[in-house]
Amino acid sequence: RLARQSHYREAASAFGKSLSFVPEFRDARKLKHKYIRLANRADAEHHYAAGMQRMANQQFGQAVLEFEKANQFVPGYKDALAMADRARSFMPPGNYQIHKAVRESMKNGIPLHWLPNIHYGHIEELQLYSIDVRHRGRFNEFRHFWPYQIHLIGEAEVELSADKEVKVQFSRVVKFRFFRNQWGGWSASFRH
Predict the structure, then answer these.
(1) Residue 64 and residue 87: Cα distance in Å, rounded?
(2) What does the alpha-carbon distance between residue 161 and residue 143 come to, in Å, rounded to a whole number?
(3) Tens-digit pLDDT profile for residues 11-34
């Protein structure tokens, strides 16, 4: 009766208990293993479907766990491990990775219009004092990047002419795109 209602784990348990009363009760051992396999398959399907739903909702960390659970119930189930790897690659960068990628992207300089009251010159040196995430957007599945709005506070040394340099502090919210580079690390580019 339990098996007909798709309660496979309970059916397997019932056949296992019957073995403790009557050791060779009518194919109980075979039926117990059959229902364990069916229960594992049903659980794998459930976790795989939950993983797909998590992917659709951009909950990539939870999707990884669901796909890995599906593979635990039935090793090699569909493409669960490949989907777990794919979900893992879509997970957003952590704070350390954000700070590192932002600093790397600033090595090529910043636009002059980020600096208040500076309309010409050449930026000699740039220091960032604060990198604060204000907003993370939805993952762009077509171009594979995470959009962020990041508040930057820093100081730039600007050469206005051969004999005149000024230090200018800036505070600006900048739109960044974070994407995986060819080595699997994080890179960032800012929007001008």
Answers:
(1) 6
(2) 41
(3) 666 655 655 555 566 666 677 678
Q: Checking phi first, is residue 164 left (phi over 0); if not, alpha (psi -120 to 50) or beta? A: beta
Q: In what order do the strands lie in the sheet with 186-190?
A: 122-136, 146-161, 164-180, 186-190
pTM for the full model?
0.70
Return the axis-axis angle of helices 80-90 and 28-56, rounded to nearest 10°. 30
* CB-CB contact of 175 with 192 (8 Å): no
**133, 97 contact by CB (below 8 A):** no
* 169 φψ region: left (φ > 0), alpha (ψ -120 to 50), beta (else): beta
- Other Cβ atoms less than 10 A from the Cβ of 5: the count is 9
